Amino acid sequence: MQTPSPADPQVLLRQAYDAFAADKLDLARRQLRPLCQAFPDAAPVLHLLALVEKKAGRAGDATRAFEAALRVAPRDHEILTNFGNLLAATGAHEAAAKRYQEALLARPGHFEALIGLALALQDAERLEEAMQFAEAATAARPRSARAWSVLGLIQKAAGDREAAWHSLSHALRIEPAHLRALHGCAQIELERGNEAAALAAFMFARRAGPDDQELRLGEAIARYETGEPHAAIQSLEEALKMRPDWVKGHRALAEMRWQQGDHANYVRSLETALRARPRDPALWTARLATLANAGEVGRALDLIPQARKALGRSQTLDLLEASLASQTGEDARADMAFDRLAKVSTRSALIALTRHRIRQKRPDAAQKLATQITRDMPQDQMGWALLGTAWRMNGDPRAQWLYDVAGAIGAIDIDRSVTDAAADRLRERHRSISPPLDQSLRGGTQTSGDLFALAFPEIVALKEAVLNALQDHLSMLPKGDPLHPLLRRMAAPRLAGSWSVRLQGSGFHINHVHPQGWLSSACYIALPPSDPERPRAGWLKLGEPPEDLRTDLPPLGWIEPAPGRLALFPAYLWHGTAPFEVGERLTVAFDVVPAN
Questions:
Q1: pTM as predicted
Q2: TPR repeats span which residues (predicted)?
């Protein structure tokens, strides 16, 4: 068949589009080539080329094509929207939001831009704004199940499960087999503690979307929570045989095996997958990170040379090696790995290098790095924790400014009858044998999901009691310091995660911070008997950096636990628990963030 000449541009462009729609991307690229040469400033040609490269997974080439198209047609709402879709897919949520906003300026009410902007703002954790644009999408197309499901999922992320249930149910009345809405409703049932109903909902949803991996994972989690851990593990094992590159499934399976006490085989699925796909960087990263999260840092380090042989040069491996070697005290190896990094600029790299400098007793270097983190990301609690540590090591008076805030640390006694009533319900939610991977507790278990989403009356009453105490605490904080990481964010609070921890004989928390919080907490439900020989056994210690940072700095203070007592403190403040010998220590914890 004779190829049309560039003199037939519409015919060739239509053929290229047909090839693109049929996923014949190499053919589409060949058909676009003469058009690009003959018409280098044709926006439709550049736009289609960008879409071809995006579908082919060549994000850099797609970005260049989108930028070229926008130089020609800067107010084309379809180009702007599709460019936003690319940026959102690569995790550049703020940049994506900007493109969607430009598309809406060019074409007010454009449905795809409204949906894209709502999702990008959600991913950027700007939930109030995200909700506004999702509501605008439902107003623009009130019979769109997609718009209602997006609104419902954003409402769910914002913690308004009642509104989310209404929106998702409305989506299902419009389109009964809409997968996002089915998934969202099943998740809400799970979060409310209705595990049997959640499992039934996930099973129904999977009939509508049998190949949907997220639904498969949701069903497995629901089985786990209904007391069928072995069935849940088997389900994920079967799914991973068909999709060995499914990293999220591997991580979930490793977590389930670990929490069920299978500490010998928790990374077995990753090992099996890597034998079939030895050059898969995502699988290697997941394997090494999972081992490190389980505390097997030496084992992860020993695998780095094997990973390098399979993958070649890798900045990800350099950062992993640097961080792990620093933790084990192999400073020379860590320094060499940090030197191989082309540029230490990402948050994870800056955090790792700051911790390394603290371990090396180089507080000036650590302070410089942590200052950069907190300047660029002023809400980063880990950055402030490390900066405060460096200040304390240097005797810098700014440490006092950071930590000695009147009223920042509180111990409030709430109604003991409320905490006593919740105790047995909380114990029932502790269903694992071991704690989650990469958590601070040792010798205990932690509940899954968002504890305060549960609909049980005892939990609802406990949530109300702690929220009332929280409001009293916030009312006592001083106002007016725009630079302070606690006092600069005095907007109305919302909870950002809640859970229960049950420690038993010899259990404790290692010192840690909550990077995603603003205020952190510990509410004491049941406590072990006092120990006259160890008067602070089980107490909450505040301000002592973790042992692996090797600072020898002492705690800044202690809080004595008591049943019904709620401790509140800044999320950037290192905190941990002194070990105790016998008994049970049952607590509830939650993080607080400003609503906007």
A1: 0.84
A2: 77-110, 145-178
